[in-house]
Amino acid sequence: MRRIAPDRDSLLAILAEVFREHGYEGASLSLIGEATGLGKGSLYHFFPGGKEEMAAAVIAHIDGWFETNVFAPLQDIDDPRAGIERMLEATDRYFRSGRRVCLIGAFALDDARDLFAKAIKSYFGRWVAHLAEALTRTGHSPARADELAEETVCAIQGALTLGRAFDDTAVFSRALQRARAALG
Amino acid sequence: MRRIAPDRDSLLAILAEVFREHGYEGASLSLIGEATGLGKGSLYHFFPGGKEEMAAAVIAHIDGWFETNVFAPLQDIDDPRAGIERMLEATDRYFRSGRRVCLIGAFALDDARDLFAKAIKSYFGRWVAHLAEALTRTGHSPARADELAEETVCAIQGALTLGRAFDDTAVFSRALQRARAALG
DNA sequence: GGAACATTGTACCTAACGGTACAATGAGGT
DNA sequence: ACCTCATTGTACCGTTAGGTACAATGTTCC
Prior knowledge:
The structure is a homodimer of 184-residue chains.
Chain A: H1 8-26, H2 29-36, H3 40-46, H4 50-74, H5 80-94, H6 103-109, H7 113-137, H8 142-166, H9 170-183
Helix pairs in contact in A: 1-2, 1-4, 4-5, 4-7, 5-7, 5-9, 6-7, 7-8, 8-9
Chain A binds a DNA duplex (30 and 30 nucleotides) through helix 3.
């Protein structure tokens, strides 16, 4: 039928929302069908590998967004401080100031971890590594930069968890503010 | 039959492990039965409310452990510094130096959150509040104490997530070490 | 118009889900 | 010995899970 060209990007965005909201196991095909308005026929047409391929595509999509919006600014050779600031802004934008949860982080905790271990590891690994590199460029020692980078990503992930637990976005805002102070 | 009096504590410990490993949705009754060696008959005898009651019991059990081993030391009026140190040691013990993940944190992220929202909120709320009170007793201003307490619990949760993602317990150890330095 | 192809709804499959019913078992107290 | 009752295994329930098959529908391009 192909009534409207089904925009793959917004399809992946909806899928991501469902996985974020219900976890990997909790995101049933009927939930996904309901959220996307697509029947199983279409779903399996776009993702022959089923749920696992959907989740993998969503992870790749998020990974791509972070690569361009979060990790790339950190690789700015000339102005590492500005790069760090842009990283923090992109992070705030992505997590909608704490209204959103980190899918990759959530997957890291439940049993989706085994399926996507490599991607999860790589995502967090690049975040920490690129931030650490930027921090060495601002004058920190490599060891201190590593420490600070890991601490920052931990703080962000932890704030997302606590913010969700408290149902309070201020937790995330405060964490970002602290990160800004510690890094800047 | 009642062959061996089934120790409720160790039963809850096994249940907790299954929930930790697979999440709420992922922990199927057959997995639980396999892990505990109990059939559905026994399981529903001990927990007539089914899976939801099992998870609730596990949460209550963990909550109790934290209450006595983590939160109580923080309420030591005379020596708040020692209380904080005991809190950190108990935390390290509970999470087995990072080999274990926080069930309550994991539940906060997936769709078990809706079922157990109150308990989750209360657990993290007491942790932050008691730590903040201890910090005011060591001389920090109430505002600074709140900030530091929230930062610390965020750091712990984040480190558990990252540690799991990297499959590396050192992340958690480093986070605890940093917390010790920041608080002590 | 018709061929080729992308897209979809429907029907269906088997396995597993959470949960229930209940009879059988055996230990503890008397 | 006997009654009571906690505990258990087994069989079963309806529902939903993820997944497959396929015919029908358009759309695009020649």
